[in-house]
Design a protein that fits this description.
The strands form five sheets. A six-stranded parallel sheet has the order 4-3-5-6-8-7, with helices on both faces. The protein has three domains: 3-199, Rossmann fold (3-Layer(aba) Sandwich), CATH 3.40.50; 213-365, TPP-binding domain (Rossmann fold, 3-Layer(aba) Sandwich); 379-564, Rossmann fold (3-Layer(aba) Sandwich). The chain has 24 helices and 22 strands. By secondary structure, the protein is an alpha/beta fold.
């Protein structure tokens, strides 16, 4: 057996650089890295030696780097991914939030934090977390509950099994999620005689598991017996490349489609059977059908509470759930008729087996009424009042083409975008709402641009999320990956302020002006974005925003546009109740009244059937 002598870190990088996806591309788009004493000598030297064969990208914040890596994988429909390496200590724990985001959203990312010395000779080292009762614990144990696979590398030869296991998880459609390899810093530098065969290029083909035949039969029987079925399209439709198959299935059998946040853009917005968004932030057209549907066909969705209206949306007395999902865990939720299999293959099989079967026709006026409502709230204002989020969305929509990708994550914007954005192409809508993580937006936009360099990427972000994490705007300039960032300044956390007031509370500690302060906040977002190298300007109206968008699309580098908005309005059309617990006892009448309304709404919940 021929061998080659390399350090453990060099071996890891060489192995990762020759892993291929089913299209013959390198599975990894490189490695994001911020170096510290836990990874600079071992992994840093290995990445330097790899050069362009495994490019290293430098970020400004560990969480931001991981968000960019995750967005890259999502934009690539999980066919490519990135690695992220940090030092031990705060560099590592900064990534835990991103790991949770990837875990919730079923997205692949390889996290490689440095770890303590395996030989323990210098213990405790700088930044080491010590457990008084367990000598094996380090800060990296925080990753265990938010990793789909976790390993601690305490010997070089452990990589011979750990790396293939990591790749198996990253490329498995059902197990896909974050992988953490906590890499002891002394082990990174240790040499070992590696089999040369370990570094042979390996292609990881996308598996498409077929559903059990009995499950297919059960699904066919359920669909044929349904009078008013509704499809809910989730992110799994995109990851399975099943958008075309979904359209064929829906049109062949005349079944309307509603879209989750992750599933939005599975069908073009103007498709006759696309009724729009579903649930708490849903279109009135989709929710009206959902309320009376006797069969909910959930395709590639984990049916979280925003999708189901906290399980109060589906009111049909005999309604059933048919869940098609590649992950058995998701397919079996809520006593569903489970079909565990690949969405693309299974939809095609169902289409063939159902033959000419067609469901009852829906009233086309439902969708047209919703589109009219969207056009109304997104139209440019006629007065001088501060614009709403919806009006800003309308301006951005009118200023982009169908190839643009809109990116968002947290606050009120995702709800408005879910309702109002008209997505024309698959993956044109990139909103992280599984974890709804403030600070994802700009870093995520950078990752999307790296995955889709030929498409305009427009990041829409509130001032609260911008302040949470903005440093990767500078990274986008440094790397030459242009993004357009529209910063909506409503002076605080406007979305949660509205929720606070809707549950009977006073505006408190959310808007900057109602939070405790000695000096009123006066942040100059334009100057701040400009200081990071972006072209930046502030506009004072919707018409000026549209003009600025023209300049931004022509610009040669990242561009930031700031606009003041009203923190109070949100789109009243559509939507559904969401379960947010209201205090049972309060001295305030408004809270007591909200509690009465809350208890009445709870009676509509059907979580167990």
């Amino acid at each position: 057996m021929k061998t080659v002598r390399l350090t453990a870190a060099q071996a890891m990088v060489r192995y990762l650089s020759v892993q291929l996806n089913h299209d013959g591309e390198g599975f990894f788009g490189g490695c994001w890295a911020i170096f510290g004493h836990g990874n600079v000598a071992g992994i840093g030297e290995a990445l330097h030696g790899a050069g362009d064969a495994f490019p290293t990208w430098r970020g400004h914040n560990e969480q931001g780097m991981a968000h960019a890596a995750i967005a890259y994988a999502k934009a690539a429909n999980r066919k490519r991914a990135m690695a992220v390496t940090t030092s031990i200590g705060p560099g590592a724990t900064n990534m835990v939030t991103a790991a949770a985001l990837a875990h919730v959203n079923r997205l692949p990312v390889l996290l490689i934090p440095g770890d303590v010395f395996a030989n323990r000779a210098p213990d405790p080292v700088l930044q080491q977390v010590e457990d008084f009762g367990d000598g094996t614990i380090s800060a990296n144990d925080c990753f265990k509950p938010v990793s789909r696979y976790f390993d601690r590398i305490t010997r070089p030869e452990q990589l011979l099994t750990a790396l293939p296991r990591a790749m198996a998880v990253l490329t498995d459609p059902a197990e896909c999620g974050p992988v953490t390899l906590a890499f002891c810093q002394d082990v990174q530098a240790e040499a070992y005689d590696w089999p040369e065969s370990f570094f042979a290029p390996k292609t990881w083909k996308q598996s498409r598991p077929r559903a059990d035949l009995d499950q297919i039969k059960d699904a066919i029987a359920a669909i044929k017996s349904a009078k008013n079925p509704l499809i809910i399209a989730g992110g799994g439709v995109h990851y399975a490349d099943a958008c075309g198959d979904l359209r064929e299935f829906a049109h062949r059998h005349n079944i309307p489609v509603a879209e989750t946040q992750a599933g939005k853009s599975a069908l073009p917005w103007d498709d006759d059977l696309n009724l729009g968004s579903i649930g708490v932030t849903g279109a009135s057209s989709a929710n009206a059908i959902a309320e009376n549907a006797d069969l909910i066909i959930a395709v590639g969705t984990r049916l979280q509470d925003f999708t189901t209206g906290s399980w109060a949306l589906f009111k049909g007395p005999n309604r059933r759930i048919l869940s098609l999902n590649v992950a058995a865990y998701d397919a079996r939720k809520h006593d569903a008729i489970s079909v565990v299999g690949d969405a693309k293959i299974t939809l095609a099989e169902l289409t063939g087996a159902l033959g000419d079967h067609r469901a009852n026709a829906i009233d086309p006026a439902l969708k047209q009424s919703w589109i009219d409502a969207v056009d109304d709230v997104t139209a440019a204002p006629t007065g001088n009042a501060l614009p709403t989020d919806a009006q800003v969305i309308g301006a951005v929509q009118r200023s982009t083409d169908e190839n643009a990708i809109v990116v968002c994550a947290a606050g009120g914007l995702p709800g408005e975008l879910h309702k109002l954005w008209k997505a024309s192409r698959p993956n044109g809508y990139h909103v992280e709402y599984g974890f709804s993580c403030m600070g994802y937006e700009i870093a995520g936009g950078l990752g999307v641009k790296m995955a889709c360099p030929d498409r305009d990427v427009v990041v829409m972000v509130g001032d609260g999320s911008y302040m949470m994490m903005n440093s990767e705007l500078a990274t986008s300039v440094m790397l030459g990956h242009k993004i357009i960032t529209v910063i909506l300044d409503n002076r605080g956390f406007g979305c949660i302020n509205r929720l606070q007031m809707a549950t009977g509370g006073e505006s408190f500690n959310n808007l900057l002006d109602t939070a405790r302060h000695a000096v009123p906040s006066a942040i100059d977002f334009t100057a701040h974005a400009g200081a990071m190298g972006a072209i930046a300007e502030k506009v004072s109206s919707i018409s000026e925003l549209e003009e600025a968008m023209v300049r931004a699309r022509k610009a040669d580098r990242s561009y930031a546009i700031v606009i003041d908005t009203d923190p109070l309005p949100s789109t009243e059309a559509g939507g559904h109740w969401w379960d947010v617990a209201v205090p049972e006892v309060s001295v305030r009448p408004s809270v007591n009244e909200a509690r009465k309304n809350y208890e009445a709404a709870l009676k509509n919940q059907r979580p167990g059937d």
